[in-house]
Design goal:
- By secondary structure, this protein is mostly helical.
- It has one domain: Amino acid/polyamine transporter I, CATH 1.20.1740.10.
- It is 77% helix and 0% strand.
- The chain contains 15 helices and no strands.
- The longest helix is centred in the middle third of the chain and has 49 residues.
């Protein structure tokens, strides 16, 4: 077990702060701005149980990522390799098979908010979102290649602060203007157990708060923060910081759902399908309660939130796939592998190019691309969840760092939840 650095009084929290905020930024993008808002717009508060259940069910498996990294000094990816090549290949295939869909969904939503921010499609009278996506990926990749983790950490913290303030402000104002009692009951024609209703719930929970296979990113970012600061915190500090980010993400998900219910469902308004129009509908929902004067602030904040998600996801995939390659083909951890940084950069460019191909193939249908990505993420979740649970439970894992009984119980219930809904979806 790695040695922890001696406590440094008031500097401890600042030294640890980072991975949990990165996690929250990754989650707050598509799952919150898009899916949670859609859930509120479609059913009012009818799907609040799904948002809460998904956050509870997935919590242990994300927490295990931070726990494993702090206790062992390795990421979950090296943990999968220690289980044998089958597990390592399984993760590599899952990551490679989903990364283009995930980044395509994130990229097109980010580009849509940038398109809306400057009114590009309206100004030039054609769908400018695909071209805008090229700029978004170029900017995101350039930042990561130039600034690496330090730049990522700084940018995400600033974006998270802006988004938190704007969302909380909009929620409070909406609550004052539209009483909760005015929200009608969920529509009778929405059946969450079959057909389109079940498909939407799976898509909603697929990235609520985000995909389980992205738990590897928690572990990588935990190690990167330790490397950046030279401070190896006690396990409780790492988990406290992660829990702060996770709780922030969960609360904001409920706020986005409430905004959709209060401002869209009560008026029978649906979010449009088109890319720029979809983004305009989200921004318009905010400005309706805050005031027209806030349009530029909200549009910039929404784009910034999605840009933060795009940057964080590109960083996560580039690091995760590079580590997975090293563990499979070099038989080494990143500390022992050669050309790690170069491989991360090449992977970053590969993922960006693959995502752009998908965006060009689906330039208008934003919902289809998002729903495909989120559904794929949900269906692979049970496999990753089971692997994460096993890694922190086996004898090789430091006994002092193993989860407590209540967390094992929640992990068991969470795995049943993921398996059960996957089975419902596949048999439908």
């Amino acid at each position: 077990m790695p040695k922890t650095t001696p406590e440094r009084s008031g500097q401890n929290w600042l030294a640890v702060l980072g991975p949990g905020i990165l996690f929250a930024s990754t989650a707050i993008g598509v799952s919150h701005l898009v899916q949670s808002t859609r859930a509120g717009a479609l059913t009012g508060f009818g799907l609040i149980w799904a948002v809460i259940a998904a956050n509870l069910a997935k919590y242990p498996f994300f927490e295990f990522g931070s726990r494993y990294a702090n206790a062992t000094g390795e990421s979950l990816i090296e943990g999968y390799r220690s289980l044998g090549k089958t597990a390592a290949w399984g993760y590599f295939i899952i990551a490679l098979g989903t990364c283009f869909f995930v980044m395509g969904a994130v990229g097109i939503v980010t580009a849509a908010f940038l398109d809306n921010l400057f009114g590009l499609s309206t100004r030039f009278d054609f769908n400018a979102t695909p071209a805008t996506a090229v700029f978004v990926f170029a900017m995101s990749a350039g930042l990561l290649i130039w600034g690496q983790y330090k730049a990522l950490d700084s940018v995400i913290k600033a974006i998270a602060a802006v988004l938190l303030l704007s969302t909380v402000g909009a929620f409070v104002l909406a609550w004052k203007q539209v009483p909760l009692s005015s929200v009608p009951a969920a529509p009778l024609d929405f059946n969450p157990w079959e057909g389109a209703g079940l498909a939407f719930i799976i898509a909603l929970m697929g990235w609520m708060p985000t995909a389980v296979d992205l738990s590897t990113w928690n572990s990588i970012w935990t190690l990167e923060r330790i490397k950046q600061t030279g401070f190896h915190p006690p396990l409780r500090s790492t988990l406290r910081e992660f829990n702060t980010g996770y709780l922030l993400s969960a609360v904001l998900a409920l706020m986005f759902l409430a905004l959709g219910a209060l401002l869209l469902f009560t008026q029978g308004t649906e979010l449009p399908d088109g890319t720029a129009a979809f983004a305009s509908g989200i921004v318009g929902m905010y400005t309706e309660v805050i005031g027209d004067w806030s349009w530029w602030i909200i549009a910039a904040a929404a784009f910034s939130a999605m840009l933060g998600t795009c940057i964080a996801c590109l960083d996560g995939y580039s690091r995760a796939l590079a580590r997975a390659y090293a563990s499979l083909f070099q038989g080494a951890s990143p500390r022992e592998a050669t050309d790690t940084r170069g491989r991360e950069q090449r992977t970053l460019l590969m993922v960006s190019a693959g995502a752009l191909v998908l965006i060009l193939a689906f330039p208008q249908d934003i919902r289809t691309l998002v729903d495909v990505a989120t559904t794929l993420s949900f269906l692979v979740a049970p496999l990753v969840a089971a692997a994460n649970w096993y890694l922190v439970s086996r004898e090789e894992f430091p006994e002092a760092a193993r989860p407590r009984l209540w967390l094992h119980a929640l992990a068991g219930l969470g795995l049943l939840f993921l398996v059960g809904f996957s089975w419902l979806f596949l048999r439908a």
